[in-house]
């Protein structure tokens, strides 16, 4: 950049800076604002007519144009003003109108909060219809206070994972006793909207998620502290409002039946407390039947389980805290009218029911060394070994379906290493199952669609996920299911931050599989097509070039521009062949971008097109910029066939418009430099 160009550019930027101050004081319709727009637009057009398009990069304390930093005087202030509005760059093409300049000043004069609440500066610019102005925003993210009440509630119900600092706060509340625990649970319940005025239709989904998160977190604490923490958690549940307990009881019991967090919570309560939660607020009915199923799963005979259910009802009706002790005999569980009182729930401890109430030494060993989780993990390992040895398709199918049913358990218990081993094994088993592979696919799809896929995607999108590599490997193993799921999420137009995360995740799990993305382009909405094209560019897979080349005929300008940006990330051979398809684009912005982007390396088709562009009778501002850029590119490539055309333009005598004079002047400079270089000795 020579000194006259720099001085004129700085003059333009000073006018822009002054114009922004004017628009901050007056509305766009005010006379002062109108005069400012004409002044800024006139100065800007003078620069564009003389030097062509300008691209401005924004840093915190300086502006950069063509690699030249501008930081003196008002340049520093203007840079900071644009920086705090999240601008990364601004490009202006010749032909910009007063309306576009006014819209740009009005947009940038808004305060940062107003811009962010409207979706960001880039989205606002797109909504303003600025064909000669392109704005790019910086990708910024903000994080809420993780240790605030809202931050902890968000971690419990959304990310389902506590940071070390959040664990300290949460477990301090649990150790403070049931009242503090209940206060935490009430905060979670309020996050779900609380209760309705009439007490009906209480939403306890968030509360259940929080209880499950806390239950898992307790398992990571020292063994000697776990019982105290679980007791505090269980007693905190008991202190919730009766209406919340009534809505929570069926769901909590369902989790207990399935071996989830409800089992640990119920196990810390006395018989009457369980009756208060389970039987009291909602009556007998279905809840009692589920409690019977739960007790049956603890190896009680069905009749004995029914008796225990009845005992809990009796405890509630009597209103006492204890019942008479009872003993297990061949005839079943019997109440003992005399003797020391004993908690009813102690009789249904799974260890007592299995090994007998008097074998306390064996019970201590069992409780410390064995657990349902360990037994299930051993069973999964056995099925994995068995699957590797089986050869008959029907046996492979049965074992694979059983393994698929355990996937949710592995995710619940954060056994991501086993999950990433199991998923590829299922895929390999599917190939060996012959005619039965459809049954394996159906079972795997059922498990994934029941919530496992949502959880894997959700956890993978968390920037601080503890097992990000394992999560990615798991999603790679099921990418045939994951890709349609991610595409559906993108189709719903998520916020920009989540959209960026979804695109990055899709690119990571689709490496080497451009067809999974490219096959979805036909029929995709314009906004979804742009996202899919971006992912194809991130893959840098030569196979994606064919899909992108077909977009040269897409009706949406933004989709075609995104396709060009994606092709520029490809290896040169595939990129050049595909980009040729875009040189016939009717939009001069794309033509100019291709020529200035050095995408014209010696290709006869491209050089022929550029000569046609120079001869074109179109003299709009955009076409003029393309003509000048094409002539410069032909000179760089030393396209001797084009020299007569350039000479003819340079020697034109009578020119009556500014645009034609601009082209003639550029042709004269190009021809002079070209002929001088030809005369220099080699």
From TrEMBL:
This is HEAT repeat domain-containing protein. InterPro entries: ARM-like (IPR011989), ARM-type_fold (IPR016024), PBS_lyase_HEAT (IPR004155). It comes from Candidatus Segetimicrobium genomatis. It comes from the Bacteria. It holds the Pfam family HEAT_PBS.
